[in-house]
Amino acid sequence: MENVLLIIHLILAAVLIGLVLLQRSEGGALGIGGGGGGGMVSSRGATTGVAKVTWGVAAAFIVTSLTLTVIAAQNSNERSVLDRIGTPSVGDEAPATPGGDELAPDLQRLLSPPAADGGGTGAAPAPNAPLAPPSAD
After folding, report:
1. pLDDT tens, 87-126?
2. I need a surface site. Which of 43, 89, 97, 137 has the fewest CB within 10 A?
3. Contacts of 121 (CB under 8 A, 6+ apart)
4. CA distance 52 to 58
């Protein structure tokens, strides 16, 4: 039902855009377009058929908007999205975070400070590691 209503809503939006673009300009704020007399108050003629259809499509668009809002509110949870931050979803388990000694050997080697004697492993420093200042020997 919601999908059908959403499709109708989108069709009404497209038709409403088309009907508004078809209407004759009254020479609004830009001072261009049709409209009689040069005064501030323009004389308006009788409502055309396009304007009546536009009002009807606009009313249907508003009704579908409100109906979609009510349906979305009924289908939503009672809790806000912000209330759900940090809590695992139903059926999902929080990922296990290893403790200090449970790190993978490669990660443990990268996170441990280098040896004071400067030798031993012979491994090159990590690519993003800051360079040590030159020694004043």
Report:
1. 666 655 555 555 555 656 666 677 777 766 555 555 555 5
2. 137
3. 115
4. 10
- Measure the N-to-C terminal CA separation of the chain; round to a whole number of Å: 80
Query: Residue 89 is which amino acid?
Result: S
State the residue for tokens 């020694």.
135
Place of tokens 């040069």: 38
The single residue listed with the structure tokens 């695992």 is 88
pTM flag (> 0.70): no
Mean pLDDT of 57-76: 93
DSSP-derived secondary structure for 58-101? HHHHHHHHHHHHHHHHHHS-SS-TGGGTTSPPTT--PPP---ST
Q: Considering Cα of 81, then 87, then 91, then 96, what sign does the dihedral take?
A: positive
Length reported for the chain: 137
CB 68 within 8 A of CB 2: yes
